[in-house]
Amino acid sequence: MKEVTIKYKSNKTLDALRDMGKHLGFTVHEPKENKPAEIFFINNVPVIRGDDTINITDLDAIFTGKGLNANEIRKSGWQRKK
Fold first, then answer.
1. Chain centroid to CA 30: how far?
2. What residues contact 5, with CB distance under 8 A and at least 6 apart?
3. N or C: which end of the chain has fewer CB within 10 A?
4. pTM above 0.70, yes or no
């Protein structure tokens, strides 16, 4: 799906875009306000929580039906070469 970013000054413009979207078949998505990243530490390593608003549905087509699980990925990805 293609995306376009539109900058506007008036809230009337946003209302007009929503109304046009109903008739022309596009959606208007308003991102959440940027809040400061929540940082916490695990064994003195800073960890920033991921963004839960990211749409990962496109990744389903890549990984669905591949028979992958976390245990197999760990075994194959973390082996040391002798």
1. 14
2. none
3. C
4. no
pLDDT of residue 14: 87
Q: Give the tokens for residue 69.
A: 């699980």
Provide the residue type at 58 as one letter: D
Separation CA 40–CA 49 (nearest Å): 8
H/E stretch holding 17 reads helix 11-24
What distance in Å separates the CA atoms of residue 66 and residue 82, rounded to the nearest whole number? 28
Beta bridge partners of 45: 42
Instruction: Say if residues 47 and 39 touch (Cβ distance below 8 Å).
Output: yes
Do 48 and 38 meet the contact criterion of CB atoms below 8 Å apart?
yes
- Higher pLDDT, residue 19 or 32: 19
